[in-house]
């Protein structure tokens, strides 16, 4: 069929007007120009516009290029759609759709892309399977793949090699692969509403949010603010799979962990997952932050509770820290064995306290205070116990409700009252002089009744301020006075003669002597005269004769005693000479023995093992360590072979739990004794 030129031009104009909204870009300059711009049907290609598909070759197939220079350099591309001036002008790839002026402008080998909008994806060169919708969408992408950018200027922020990134919104920029961004930043930021047509926050959700696993992550503070509409429902609830609350945070910040429903009564817990620090100690912590009222107006950590595992076992302790004007310090620790330490990092008992002050009456003090210092209280330090009442000394009561009080039972130890270095089991000092009314180092009985007072050199029996009778051995038995030494018994004498055994002032009456008749007494008066008071006027002649015989025998015995005494004096002189020659040797030996030392075992108390250190000077021939129980029985003897400093390791499994003493024995002498305690 032949068609005239005007009809052909009309058909062409209709076609162009139907394919493009920019009719002004299509100019008709004659039949030759029309033929140059329209080429329909070659290898199923459609080219409309000046120089559109100009360089297409035989391999080019199924392409639609509309617009000046659209697909200009495509030679073998297949299945492309380029609409707009210079769209896909450099492209020589397949399955691209570029719609918009200069869209896909620099694309060369990138395929399967969809760019819609002026200059959409105009810098893309080799990127593939991208979707860019909007003016200059994807403008920063050169070699990106599988990205979706929707909105004017939506694109990658800086990277040109993103994969599977999504940016939606005006000037929305994404800067990581496999990431999605909605809205821009600053003035271009948007609120996202889900089931909400007027979102008031960056994400405004009406309804439930479900997260199947994963994490909530935040750089900076993460804030939950319930009840922003001030309706009174200002709680954050955490529910279990039945819909029952398991944890609630109320309007005051209080956290409640519930046990669930009655049908599903589970035990709830709060678990902190720890990490390993630089010293390879696993730890977790709870910090308590306080508000600083100074000019900085900031929060600071005022206290902390932490748990550490510094051992190879699955163990853990609990540590408590507080902050003061000197810094942040650990104040208390509960060890993995349940021992509580205050002021110590290695508690050796159920409660170990260290670092306190000396107990005082005024100002408190001590390692431990029981009670209010303004009233009755008791202070304890490392070697003192003081009962107080508002700064004054108070009574200390022990076993007030009954029961025995055992002090150092079965082990060595002295009790001092008024003494800092007691030298006996009970050593009393710093008392007052005994009088008839009161005083003494010790008082036995009530002062208002019969009582006995003892000071450091007096014994006085009293009865309500008056002298009373002193009974010795009232129920029988001998009374021995100075049985093994020299000394004088004085009666009514303050300074007795040293050579006398008995020195009296006043009359002495000896009644019912066996050598006299019944009812007769031997009397020595104050002038020293001796007389016999008979029960009758007539003397017993037989008794007198017997006394004379006894006197002769005594004289004979006295002569014998004098001879024996002289012999003893001679022997004593020889012994003194021998002792004088060996004084230096004795002094040397004494000095050697006194230089020996025995240390306190460590740790003490102990549960597994303890170490006893000692020093044995040179010259010692036999040395051993003896372990005794509370009854004083030796249960273990450990020989020591070498002199000098040494240690003995004692294992707990060889002993039963309880209190023990141990002594260092050198050449048969006990040099020192210590106490130790084994616990389980």
Tally of helical segments: 4
Strand order of the largest sheet: 1-2-3-4-5-6-7-8-10-12
Instruction: Work out the radius of gyration.
Output: 56 Å
Strand content: 25-35%
Q: Which stretches are low in confidence, meaning pLDDT under 50 for 5 or more residues running?
A: 1-41, 536-540, 583-589
Q: How far apart lie the N and C ends?
A: 116 Å
What is the residue-mean pLDDT, rounded to a whole number? 78
Helix content: 10-25%
SS class: mainly beta
Which outline best applies? elongated
The count of β-strands is 46
Largest sheet: 10 strands, mixed
Structure in words:
Helices cover 11% and strands 30% of the residues. With 680 residues, the protein is mainly β. The chain has a ten-stranded mixed β-sheet. It has a seven-stranded mixed β-sheet with strand order 18-19-20-21-22-23-24, with no helix packed on it. A hairpin with a 2-residue loop joins strand 21 and strand 22 (327-334). The model is unreliable at 1-41, 536-540 and 583-589 (pLDDT under 50).
